[in-house]
Amino acid sequence: MSQLNPFDGVAAREYCASRPNVSEEFPFGPDVRVFKVSGKIFALLDFESPAHLSLKCDPDRAEVLRELYPAIIAGYHLNKRHWNTITLDDSVPPDECRTLIEHSYTLVAPKKSKEHRTSGKSKT
Questions:
Q1: Are 45 and 16 in contact (CB under 8 A)?
Q2: Angle at CA 11, nearest 5°, toward 100 and 41?
Q3: Alpha helices in 19-122 (DSSP H)
Q4: Which helix (H) or strand (E) is 14 found in, with range?
Q5: CA 12 to CA 8: how far, in whole Å?
Q6: Distance CA 88, CA 94 (A)
Q7: 88: in domain
Q8: Distance between CA 32 and CA 45 in Å, rounded?
Q9: The domain spanning residue 92 has which CATH number?
Q10: How much is the pTM?
Q11: Residue-wise pLDDT tens digits, 56-83
Q12: Starting at the edge strand that comes first in sequence, how are the strands of the sheet with 40-46 ordered?
């Protein structure tokens, strides 16, 4: 399936890197980009043709996505309950790919504690 703006490895890298406080590392060698937030991995990107993007995912949602899209499988070399791997072959719509990156990022990014959120309020 061809699209004017395919969601390929380059688009995946740009979107992952654009999330707040993200670092891009290569702990597994030069072929696999690892994206972290606060030291925790939320995405792994392999540019092998076609590119593959592994993302953390809520287990129930992960199962639904695997049934819906043949290009989404249980995480390759990862915890198969909590990770999906997407083959970036244009069969998963770009908006869905971005949504899944955001979902993974949100699962991993630190949550603001109640104390931190209310620290600006007076305690009278």
A1: yes
A2: 50
A3: 59-68, 94-108, 114-118
A4: helix 9-18
A5: 6
A6: 9
A7: yes
A8: 6
A9: 3.90.1150.30
A10: 0.85
A11: 999 999 999 999 999 999 998 898 999 9
A12: 22-25, 32-37, 40-46, 52-56, 83-87, 72-74
